[in-house]
Amino acid sequence: MASHPITGFDLAEADRLLTTTKQVRKRLDLSRPVPYGELLECIEIAGHAPMGGNLERNRWIIVDDPESKARIAERFADVGRPYLAANAEIRADDRSQKVIDSASFLVDHLAEVPALVISLRLDRPPLTPDSQGGAAAYYGSVLPGVWSFQLAARARGIGSAWTTFHLEHEAEIAELLGIPASVTQVCLLAVGYYTGDSFSPAPRRPASEVTYLNRWKQPVE
User: So what's the pLDDT on residue 126?
Assistant: First the structure.
């Protein structure tokens, strides 16, 4: 596919990046450190993602201290192991079992991952019963940056896995890392160079099956 006539982007390369950036767990290279410079480049790019009001309230912590990683991994496993075990009993299809097996590998090896990158926001999310819109705006100002980080990492040969198990122990992890109580941890990325040559797009339903026109269930034709 040629470059787009208006933007000049190579669409084939852009689409390949977007369709092959995925959860990387078993293929993370646990023996190869990721230089801080590479991680800072990814964070720099993540800072250009859309955010509400351009307030730039997002922050990041890179954790590569072995003792801190071990503590985080313990709490991660406290939540992850029972959750995955319960899912293994009710999701017996092959595709689900592969995902559970991959996630279980990360639970067992999180402390060995070269870098844990935690996405933060400088305030707390709205918690009132009618706060759906506020919560959407809150997390919608953070998560695009996390995805941009993952895309930038993938382009540099670095894999990542988006996780949230540790958030069940957010206060304890905050104390461990010196994060103020007023700051929210949004997710944890397990980050490392990936092994092997590349990735293939995962099977997904076509856009025509998941997109409606003007009304629910009305197809786009």
Answer: 86
Cα 57 vs. chain centroid, distance in angstroms?
18
DSSP element (H, E) containing 165: none
Q: Beta strands 58-63 and 158-163: pairing type?
A: unpaired
Return the ∠ at Cα 166 (arms to 161 and 170), rounded to 5°.
135
* CA distance linking residue 133 with residue 205, whole number of Å: 28
- Spatial CB neighbours of 24, under 8 Å, sequence gap ≥ 6: 159, 160, 161, 192, 194, 199
Backbone angles phi, psi at 171, to 5 degrees: -65, -40
Distance CA 128, CA 135 (A): 9
What pLDDT score was predicted for residue 2?
63
DSSP-assigned beta bridge partners for residue 21? none
CA distance 143 to 49: 9
pLDDT, tens digit (0-9, with 9 covering 90-100), for 94-121? 888 999 999 999 999 999 999 999 999 9
Helix (H) or strand (E) holding 22: none
The reported pLDDT for the residue numbered 92 is 75
Region 148-170: mean pLDDT is: 97
HEC profile of 32-100: CCCCHHHHHHHHHHHCCCCCHHHCCCEEEEEECCHHHHHHHHHHHHHHHHHHHHHHHHHCCCHHHHHHH
